[in-house]
Structure to design on (305 residues):
């Protein structure tokens, strides 16, 4: 990527001071930009802004627009069209930079503002946010999917991301939905996977009579022991697959061990939550396809569906 131009220090307005907007505001403030205004509706958002964006005045949307040289639209994807219309109605100054943080959209959705002479960019951090200052620290290790309509917007978006410590990655307008789907599949669906795995492991620890948790560790009862067992394994697997790709696969599917997988399916089917086995089956079938497993294992997984 070519070295982008460094933008001047900007007066930044944030709509709104949720988890994403607050973290980006903190990061931009650390880079020397002036966070002058933020929109915040709920008491929690107001408190978050007061604590982490102390320089920002809490204003209604027209006030935020009026104060800003860089307007950051950090709202849910479903709310973005309405907010864009509201910004347009507030008569922003031509030349104002407006960036949204929605993963599934590029700059086409900002066309009503581009027609008013605003510089429009999409700037999505590929990171999950929990609402604490840890979010801001994680941005320094994050990539941002950036999309713009011209070289000027591209340079501005890249520079802002670099100033926050992140890595800008250009995503074509036509590929934003695919980009977002990949992130949702890898991160959001991981939550569902680990939740199921913890539930199954917790049932195994509890035992058939439900009392196993009392003696699961030498220290006695431990409500989080399932997560403690699974955590190091999952972290190692994640690091391995990111470094090695599909070759990182281990376990019964990698060994083409249909007998063990058959027992797994039976054990999971016996749990009160019968949906756990469907997730195992679907992902095992995908792993079997990726690893080139034999016919017996593939037919077992297909027959169970």
């Amino acid at each position: 990527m070519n070295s982008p131009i460094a933008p001047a220090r900007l007066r930044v307005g944030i709509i709104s001071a949720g988890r994403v907007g607050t973290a980006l505001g903190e990061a931009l403030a650390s880079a020397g930009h002036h966070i002058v205004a933020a929109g915040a509706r709920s008491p929690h958002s107001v408190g978050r802004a007061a604590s982490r964006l102390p320089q920002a005045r809490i204003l209604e949307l027209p006030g935020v627009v009026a104060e800003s040289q860089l307007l950051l639209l950090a709202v849910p994807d479903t709310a973005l069209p309405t907010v864009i219309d509201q910004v347009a109605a507030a008569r922003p100054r031509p030349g104002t930079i407006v960036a949204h943080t929605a993963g599934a959209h590029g700059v086409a959705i900002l066309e009503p503002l581009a027609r008013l002479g605003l510089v429009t960019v999409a700037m999505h951090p590929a990171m999950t946010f929990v609402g604490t200052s840890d979010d801001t620290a994680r941005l320094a290790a994050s990539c941002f999917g950036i999309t713009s309509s011209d070289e000027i917007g591209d340079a501005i978006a890249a520079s802002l991301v670099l100033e926050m410590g992140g890595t800008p990655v250009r995503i074509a307008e036509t590929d934003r939905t695919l980009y977002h789907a990949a992130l949702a599949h890898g991160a959001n669906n991981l939550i569902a996977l680990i939740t199921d795995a913890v539930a199954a492991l917790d049932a195994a620890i509890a035992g058939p009579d439900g009392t196993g948790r009392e003696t699961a560790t030498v220290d006695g009862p431990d409500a989080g022991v399932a997560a403690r067992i699974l955590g190091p394994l999952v972290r190692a697997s994640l690091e391995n697959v990111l470094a090695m790709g599909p070759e990182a696969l281990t376990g019964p599917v990698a060994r083409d061990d249909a007998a063990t997988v058959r027992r797994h399916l039976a054990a999971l089917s016996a749990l009160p939550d019968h949906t756990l086995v469907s997730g195992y089956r679907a992902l095992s079938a995908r792993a079997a396809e990726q690893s080139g497993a034999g016919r017996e294992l593939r037919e077992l997984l297909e027959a169970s569906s």
